[in-house]
Amino acid sequence: MTTNDHQPTEAPVPAPAQRLALHSLAPDFYQAMIAVDRAARKGIDHTLAELVKVHASMINGCAFCIDMHSTDALKGGEQDHRLLSLPAWRETPWFTARERAALALTESITLLTQGHVPDAVYAEAAARFDETELAQLIALIVTINAWNRIGVASRLSPAAK
Question: Quick one: 50 exposed, middle or buried, by C-beta within 10 A (0-12, 13-18, 19+)?
């Protein structure tokens, strides 16, 4: 007999220790990142922004950002099955053409060394977003990638739940 109640039989393994606290050791840089983040989000739909942030964070393996942005997405009304299927978004029927273009662009920019940003990926995004939206989307993708690198390099970890 199976049950939906998941009761762990062992305690979770603690996260690795944080390497450094960038916000206190490089406060000017950290505040500048917060300002860049605020500017990058302007004009981007909240749902789309969180999908992009979670997807990039999954690709980059940033546990802190995955946790933060999936929590924010769920609070904003995003559906859990969409978040859980982001690694296989091409194989699902529940992302719009606009979201798909943004996710493809997110992958290309995040995995820059694996073929840069192909013309077809850029053209699809340009067809779905006006120039200002596209510029903001690129800014958002660049910014979440910077945050991911901060999180991974300093070993930021989500709080235990």
Answer: buried
Residue 29: the pLDDT is 97
pLDDT tens for 104-123 read 999 999 999 998 999 999 99
Q: What is the DSSP string of 104-157?
A: HHHHHHHTTTTT-S-HHHHHHHHHHS-HHHHHHHHHHHHHHHHHHHHHHHHT--
Q: How far apart are CA 96 and CA 102, in angstroms?
A: 10
- Predicted confidence band at 1 (pLDDT cuts at 50, 70, 90)? very low
CA distance linking residue 24 with residue 64, whole number of Å: 18
As given in the structure block, the two tokens for residue 1 are 């007999």
Query: What residue type is assigned to position 119 of the chain?
Result: D
pLDDT bracket for residue 66 (50, 70, 90): very high
What is the maximum alpha-carbon separation in the chain?
56
Name residue 25's amino acid: L
Cα separation, 71 vs 104, whole angstroms: 22
Q: Which residue has the tokens 């719009």?
A: 96
- Which residue, among 87, 85, 101, 160, has the nearest Cα to 134 in the 3D structure? 101
Give the DSSP letter of residue 158: P
